[in-house]
Amino acid sequence: MRVVWAGRWLRTAYALFRDTPQRSASRGAPRQRRTQKDCRAGWEEEKSTDRVKWRQLEHRGPYFSPAYEPLPDGVRFFYDGKPVKLSVAAEEVATFYAKMLDREYTTKEVFQNNFFSDWQKEMTAEERKVIKHLDKCDFTEMHRYFVDKAAARKALPREEKQKLKEAAEKLRQEFGYCILDGHREKIGNFKTEPPGLFQGRGDHPKMGMVKRRILPEDVVINCSRDSKIPEPPVGHQWKEVRSDNTVMWLASWKENIQSSVKYITLNPSSKLKGEKDWQKYEIARRLKGVVDEIRSQYRADWKSREMKRRQRAVALYLIDKLALRAGNEKEEGEAADTVGCCSLRVEHIRLHPAADGQEHVVEFDFLGKDSIRYCNRVPVEKPVYKNLQLFMENKDLGDDLFDRLTTASLNKHLQDLMDGLTAKVFRTYNASVTLQEQLQVLTCAEDSIAAKILSYNRANRAVAILCNHQRATPKTFEKSMQNLQTKIKVKKEQLAEARVELKRAKADHETRGDGKSRSLLEKKRRVLEKLQDQLARLSAQATDKEENKQVALGTSKLNYLDPRISIAWCKRFRVPVEKIYNKTQREKFTWALNMAGEDFEF
DNA sequence: CAGCGGACTTAGGACTGACCTT
DNA sequence: AAGGTCAGTCCTAAGTCCGCTG
């Protein structure tokens, strides 16, 4: 099987090269990842060509958040009604809290407890003796100070604002770029994360903990040996300088909340990131070629005698059909309680023999990534239903649904089915295929550009819904919807008026029949047409807005939809690509922009 | 050979600033 | 000038998956 797919891969790559002769020479196709088993003799070569990410890397290191500036004397903190002058360290942490005072987040008990306990660690022994309870602390004067400061900044005269802007631009020019293999590339995040209070999403056990300041002494620099090594800020030194060209990051440090590593990395517009993006979609396209076979296999496995195999087959069905995430295990108490497919628990599903006029309905209700709720009722094939029943037998609500399955074992199996296949590839594959199908179904060649864009957004929306990409209803939604409706109403009135005028002009022309009345008639006709056009555009906008209220389109557009599908669609239907992708998005998808002709098929 | 940490992708919300109206 | 609105940008948390290690 491997050999067959390698052949397919080469053909695909070749086809891509032909589309883009100008790029192929410099870029090269993404390389297929090979396992040692496949090609033992070629392994050394693979190591040098596949794992190596760059030959030259030079940059300025991260830009550090400015040192803490103590509050002016007039800004006081009160404990139990009395002003208390805090030590600098304790004051700094207090300002973190004070800045957030108006956020609902800070009222949560976990947040307050975590904050207070971490704050006490920064206090002097004296302060600890006095400051015993958070509810006796009064940060309002501090809070007001920061609010005023923000307002003052906003109210700055134009020239001052211009100066600030120029300073920021200078900083970006200085720190925001690196040289990678001779090319100047944008860096994604060139600043270290400033200290503050940790804000996890959902019910996070660590919310409110103090995220400490990052110093050069925490930072590992990664750059090429012969490059100009970045200078640490005066009086400081780097934790380490290394030259590891098998990784893409420029600098890293360990963060103190989860003790995970944070990185300074390239911007998505960079060549290296672009190549990886391309590679991701090529893997998804290879899945298209084998997905039928994989589907028949997991169907067969629903009847397997081996429980492990059955669970794997049912989980894979859910991942494929519902675009669920893999669902790695998480350490309890370290993060919010969220799940994906493999980590689903009995409490997260309910089985209905019949519901909504359909048979074998499974109701899902769980918190997924970012504690976004996944709530869905879906009819499934009977053997799936029966298997789920079986997996739930004699279990408690808190038990794992798939107790014999891990993401590692699932991915290992997938790897055997297709080189490079993992659970998340199904999401990419199904998202892209859905976009392509929906565009096909929804687009009318005769439509106006506005109507075509509405169709595009609808296709995009179908994917976002599949992937459960939600957003909070924008705070100004009601208001802005109302404004739009008013505009529509006004436009309708104008339209009615224009109709009357056209009629009048028509009658006038019929009686008079001269050139002047004709040109007036034509003019009225044009006005009417223009108004109709504007109304159609507004209505489309309103529909789009309403349907999009709680759906986030950006995530799928940026991460799941092969840009070549959209670009091909734009070319085929004469929609300017700028209507679909803004400047940043076009930069990210540069790799695809010239590659996809109008006949590109995912 | 599981468990863990590192590296990288995916994610939603906050913030910003350009543009428009009042 | 002030205030409102919105797209675009920034931010960093939270996933996935891999490779190393004991």
- SS-based structural class? alpha+beta
Helicity level = 40-55%
**Quaternary structure:** single chain
User: If helices are DSSP runs of H or I spanning 4 or more residues, what is the number of helices?
Assistant: 20
Descriptive terms for the model:
602 residues, disordered N terminus, DNA-binding, Arc Repressor Mutant, subunit A, 50% helix, 5 domains, single chain, DNA Topoisomerase I, domain 2
Structure description:
Pfam families: Topo_C_assoc, Topoisom_I, Topoisom_I_N. This is DNA topoisomerase I. It catalyses: ATP-independent breakage of single-stranded DNA, followed by passage and rejoining. It comes from Microcebus murinus. Its EC number is 5.6.2.1. There is one protein chain. Mean pLDDT is 88; it is low at 1-47. Strand 11 and strand 12 form a beta hairpin. The protein has 20 helices and 15 strands. It has helices spanning 2-19, 21-27, 43-51, 88-99, 109-122, 125-130, 140-154, 158-175, 271-301, 307-322, 382-392, 407-417, 423-442, 449-466, 477-512, 515-547, 554-559, 563-572, 583-588, 590-593; strands at 57-58, 77-79, 82-84, 137-138, 177-180, 183-186, 196-197, 210-211, 220-222, 240-242, 251-254, 261-264, 349-355, 358-367, 373-379. It has five domains: 2-51, no CATH class; 77-158, Arc Repressor Mutant, subunit A (Orthogonal Bundle), CATH 1.10.10; 159-264, DNA Topoisomerase I, domain 2 (Beta Complex), CATH 2.170.11; 272-428, Alpha-Beta Complex (Topoisomerase I, Chain A, domain 3), CATH 3.90.15.10; 431-593, Topoisomerase I, Chain A, domain 4, CATH 1.10.132.10. The chain has a four-stranded mixed beta sheet, with no helix packed on it. The two termini are 22 Å apart. It is an alpha+beta fold. It binds a DNA duplex (22 and 22 nucleotides) through strand 12, helix 12, helix 15 and helix 17.
